[in-house]
Write a structure and sequence with these properties.
By secondary structure, the protein is mostly helical. It has 4 helices and no strands.
């Protein structure tokens, strides 16, 4: 009985090893050129609605003045992991709407 487990365990180990070797050695022949990819750009209002409401209820744009929005944006850029262009669009929207 122990021999059967050793043979089965060895076979299973060999199978897993061969699968991992094959999966790690696979090469992708076609790559997408990021510069030429169709990038969907979103407006500041769309980004604000999607990113802010992901974690909390987004406050009204008129709830704060421009100086407060600058401070909030700096903090939330780090917390929400936003890019510079995303936070700039969101700030432009918030400042135009308040």
């Amino acid at each position: 009985m122990k021999t059967i487990f050793k043979v089965f365990g060895g076979t299973l180990l060999l199978l897993l090893l061969s699968i991992s070797i094959v999966s790690c050695s696979a090469k992708k022949e076609v790559y997408t050129d990021v510069a030429n990819a169709n990038v969907i750009t979103k407006s500041g209002a769309q980004l604000w609605g999607e990113t802010c409401n992901r974690c909390h209820i987004a406050p009204s744009p008129s709830a704060y003045n421009d100086v407060d929005w600058n401070t909030i944006a700096l903090h939330m850029r780090v917390r929400a992991n936003l890019t510079e262009s995303e936070i700039t669009k969101i700030l432009e929207f918030l400042k135009s709407a308040n």
